[in-house]
Every structure is written in structure tokens, then in C-alpha cells.
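Entry 14. Structure prediction run on the chain below.
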Amino acid sequence: MPDEIQTEPPEFPFPWMPLQVGNVEIVGWDGFSYVDRSGRTYWSGAEPSEVDCADAVQNPRPCPAPVVIMTPLTVLSRLTPAEEMALTASADLAVSIVRQRMIAAGEIRSDDPRTIEGRQILIAKGIITAERAAEIFA
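Output returned:
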């Protein structure tokens, strides 16, 4: 006896799905983005709605950068010897505080305001450049 053929339509997360927007058919929501039939995502950042979905497809926004979580040792190991010496030998109080907080931290998160502030201090004080900060904290 052959298997029964599934005739019921797939379940969609919202009653207005699937939604045709131009030549894109939106068929899902992953909690952050709308998903089309091919699996491409369209980040929204707003409460899901038919209007927001159409806007997300017609005016794609870049997805926010993922949060990076590192250990202090990972961050310190990415410094060049010259950068590490500058960080360690600095007599600047702000740099010293950044170094102490970095060492004491259980983890360093890219979305933590203290990480963002510490990174800006190290750049402002000439310990690292903005380009190197992007590499170190990536």
C-alpha cells in the first residue's frame, strides 16, 4: 500500500504568508529575518508584519554584526609584541584601567559597552590603531 500523499499546505508562521513581493516569495520567519523560498534572509529588526516584510525585501538592510565573545587571553594573544609592550608599559591611568579590566574579565564581548569604551581608549592613546582594533576584537 503506497504512503499517503500529503495534501495539506505547509504551516506558515503568520496568516499573511506566503507573501509575494516582486519576484520574491517570503515563506518563513527565523525569529530575526524573513526567509524566501531559496533560503535567503531579509533582516528586519522590527515586529513581523506584512508591511515590514515587503519593506525588508524591497529595501534590504545589512544584518547586524554577530556578537563576538573572546577570552582575555585570546585578545592579548592577538596583540603584536610592540602593542603588548605599549599596553603593559603605559603610565596612562585610562590605559591601565582598560588592561586591568581586560585581564579580570571572564569574557570579552563585542557588544559590551566596556569593551567598546576600552577599545576607543586604546585607539585614542595610540596603543593600537583603529584597523588593528578591528582585527584584534573580530
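The CA atoms of residues 65 and 110 lie 9 Å apart.
Filed with the rest of this week's runs.
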